[in-house]
């Protein structure tokens, strides 16, 4: 016993990997095919929860790739791109169209907690529809100071609390939008 193990050496057990592939294999060319497979697997309704990474590494990563912050609003940044891609898809599964959105890694939260996307001015994390969510993200970019470090634990804990609030009866889809520098 003892010693250290690398996360790179940890893989799903063969049985678990096989079960995952049997549930929803990655073989779809069209969204309609994936949508049908999800419904066949019993996934008809979700609650999407979004966490936006506002750590300082968004500046460094963005500088390498785009010559500016990944949160830059003068172009279709990666965060906006993901939201645009998901906009026609998620409403087919998220029945209420209300999206709780949070931020982490900023000066307000650092690696300790999460905050509603527009805190402290607005402490309600809920956005109705993607257009409100996208505008909320743009507003947050203008009022948020990047910091760090990046850690997902507070956001995962927040999603668990939301799941508990639903009494465990709602499938939670946690979308972590990050630069990948963890």
Automatic annotation (TrEMBL):
Q: Which InterPro entries match?
A: Copine_C, E3_ligase/Copine_domain
Listed GO CC annotations:
nucleus
Annotated GO biological processes are: protein ubiquitination
Pfam family for this entry, one: Copine
Q: Which GO terms describe its molecular function?
A: ubiquitin-protein transferase activity
PANTHER family found in the cross-reference section:
COPINE FAMILY PROTEIN 1, COPINE FAMILY PROTEIN 2
What is the protein named? Copine I
Q: Which organism is it from?
A: Trepomonas sp. PC1
Record lineage: Eukaryota, Metamonada, Diplomonadida, Hexamitidae, Hexamitinae
């Amino acid at each position: 016993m003892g010693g250290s193990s690398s996360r790179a050496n940890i893989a799903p057990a063969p049985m678990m990997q096989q079960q995952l592939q049997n549930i929803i294999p990655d073989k779809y060319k069209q969204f309609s095919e994936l949508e049908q497979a999800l419904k066949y697997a019993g996934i008809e309704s979700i609650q999407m929860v979004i966490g936006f990474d506002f750590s300082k590494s968004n500046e460094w990563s963005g500088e390498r790739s785009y010559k500016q912050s990944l949160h830059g609003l003068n172009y279709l940044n990666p965060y906006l791109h993901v939201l645009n891609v998901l906009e026609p898809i998620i409403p087919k599964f998220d029945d209420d169209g209300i999206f709780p959105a949070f931020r982490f890694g900023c000066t307000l939260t650092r690696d300790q907690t999460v905050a509603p996307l527009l805190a402290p001015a607005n402490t309600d994390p809920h956005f109705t529809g993607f257009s409100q969510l996208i505008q909320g993200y743009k507003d947050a970019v203008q009022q948020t100071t990047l910091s760090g470090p990046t850690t997902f634990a507070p956001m995962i804990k927040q999603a668990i609390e939301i799941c508990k609030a639903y009494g465990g009866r709602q499938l939670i889809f946690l979308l972590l939008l990050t630069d990948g520098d963890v």
